[in-house]
């Protein structure tokens, strides 16, 4: 077998000396190993990992593909940047004075004016004195501008940006007045109460007018400008409920409670499965809060009969508001509900009463059928009084009082039976209003309080009208 060995020796060889006299010099670095005669040696630079590797040239096709990829990425980045620049500076369409126009997105109205040459074609308005005489020609507004129907002040033209789709009107400037002081007088609305019926409510709320006297800072002129805002008068209407269909509806209402008979009334209503409206008296509620709560818990509708059994027509505005407010407060404290319906004691509520307190209730409710129970005619007469007069859409007056309660409790079961035999559905006042779609659309029984901009009216001539 042929002997093989590596080209390196584990033992450190002894350096050979140069032959004497021949000028021979050993190579620098490690001395060569002595080779054995007859041995075959392997080249360790090709077979083991410790030696240097020969450098291999990369594939030219791979180098070309890498260059193409870099070019594509660069082009994509350039396209993206160009797209962003275009998008941020693109033109958008608007409507200017009825015709289509364009402007760079987020351009301002002032830039549009300059681009379209409107700064040369629009004529400024004049500067006027308070009496409308001209103080300075072309000293007024430079332009008149509306954006989507809203006026734009001249100071905002340079900051109002356009994004496309806007509708602008840019025309000649308006005349403007000199700086001036204003002495204003508010004109209170008047009130009218018209119609006939058992339900009264505000159809049109009064809005105050305004008159002004101006004094010019530049001219020194004082001038009465007269009425600069027209007054809107308040309109209260009386009406009756007219159910839309041929069904019969009637509302039973109880005044002056709670009383010692209230619980018996509630038991009868529960047994018959009907609901009613109770106009509670504030001082009676304070005396029997548990009965007021029982009425509310039974699901019946609540209204106020004012605080005490007092004729409201003779009260001052302050006294009237106290009577009404205290009545509602007592009900709210006992039941957690604050009603909006008011029934004036004795059915008396004048135009002046309306003017003084219309913001405290949603409606004043009277009656169209009087049972007469307060006259103590007997239970049979109470039933006949109602049945002889009742019509669909009527509101029936009953009295929940200690003096009337005995006869009322005796009459109530028969009255309910007779009404239902005649085809009537017994409902609350609010439910009755809903049967008249025209009235229900106009009257919101949940709304209490003055609308924004409205004011209490004044009575020009008291007519002492009642229901």
Automatic annotation (TrEMBL):
Cellular component per GO, a single term: membrane
A Pfam family per the record: Polysacc_deac_1
Transcription found in the keyword field: no
Gene Ontology molecular-function annotations: hydrolase activity, acting on carbon-nitrogen (but not peptide) bonds; metal ion binding
Chain segments annotated as transmembrane: 68-88
Residue span(s) of domain NodB homology: 248-427
Xref: PANTHER family: CHITIN DEACETYLASE 1-RELATED, GLYCOSYL TRANSFERASE-RELATED
Name this polypeptide is given: Polysaccharide deacetylase family protein
Organism from which the protein derives: Enorma phocaeensis
């Amino acid at each position: 077998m042929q002997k093989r060995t590596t080209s390196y020796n584990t033992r450190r060889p002894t350096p050979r000396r140069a032959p004497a006299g021949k000028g021979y010099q050993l190579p620098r670095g490690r001395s060569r190993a002595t080779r054995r005669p007859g041995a075959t040696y392997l080249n360790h630079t090709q077979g083991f990992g410790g030696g240097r590797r020969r450098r291999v040239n990369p594939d030219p096709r791979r180098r070309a593909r890498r260059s193409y990829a870099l070019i594509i990425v660069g082009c994509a980045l350039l396209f993206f940047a160009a797209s962003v620049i275009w998008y941020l500076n693109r033109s958008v369409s608007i409507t200017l004075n009825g015709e289509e126009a364009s402007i760079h997105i987020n351009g301002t109205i002032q830039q549009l004016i300059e681009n379209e040459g409107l700064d040369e074609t629009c004529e400024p308005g004049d500067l006027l004195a308070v009496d409308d005489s001209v103080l300075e020609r072309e000293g007024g507004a430079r332009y008149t501008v509306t954006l989507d129907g809203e006026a734009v002040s001249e100071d905002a033209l340079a900051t109002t940006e356009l994004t496309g789709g806007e509708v602008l009107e840019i025309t000649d400037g308006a005349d403007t007045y000199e700086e001036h002081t204003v002495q204003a007088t508010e004109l209170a609305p008047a009130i009218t109460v018209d119609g006939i019926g058992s339900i009264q409510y505000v159809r049109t709320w009064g809005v105050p007018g305004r008159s002004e006297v101006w004094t010019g800072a530049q001219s020194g002129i004082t001038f009465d400008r007269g009425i600069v805002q027209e007054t809107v008068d308040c309109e209260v209407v009386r009406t009756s409920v007219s159910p839309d269909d041929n069904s019969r509806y009637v509302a039973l209402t109880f005044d002056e409670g709670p009383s010692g008979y209230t619980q018996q009334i509630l038991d009868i209503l529960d047994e018959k499965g009907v609901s009613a409206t109770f106009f509670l008296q504030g001082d009676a509620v304070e005396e029997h809060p548990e009965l007021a709560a029982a009425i509310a818990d039974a699901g019946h509708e609540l209204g106020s009969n004012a605080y005490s059994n007092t004729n409201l027509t003779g009260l001052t505005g302050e006294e009237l508001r106290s009577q009404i407010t205290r009545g509602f407060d007592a009900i709210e404290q006992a039941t957690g509900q604050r009603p909006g319906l008011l029934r004036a004691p004795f059915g008396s509520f004048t135009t002046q009463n309306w003017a003084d307190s219309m913001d405290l209730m949603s409606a004043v409710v009277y009656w169209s059928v009087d049972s007469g129970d307060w006259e103590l005619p007997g239970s049979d007469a109470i039933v006949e009084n109602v049945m002889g007069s009742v019509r669909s859409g009527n509101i029936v007056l009953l009295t929940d009082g200690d003096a009337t309660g005995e006869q009322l409790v005796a009459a109530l079961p028969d009255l309910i039976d007779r009404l239902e035999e005649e085809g009537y559905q017994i409902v609350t006042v609010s439910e009755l209003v809903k049967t008249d779609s025209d009235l229900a659309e106009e009257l919101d029984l949940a709304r209490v309080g003055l609308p924004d901009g409205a004011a209490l009216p004044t009575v020009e001539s008291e007519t002492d009208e009642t229901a």
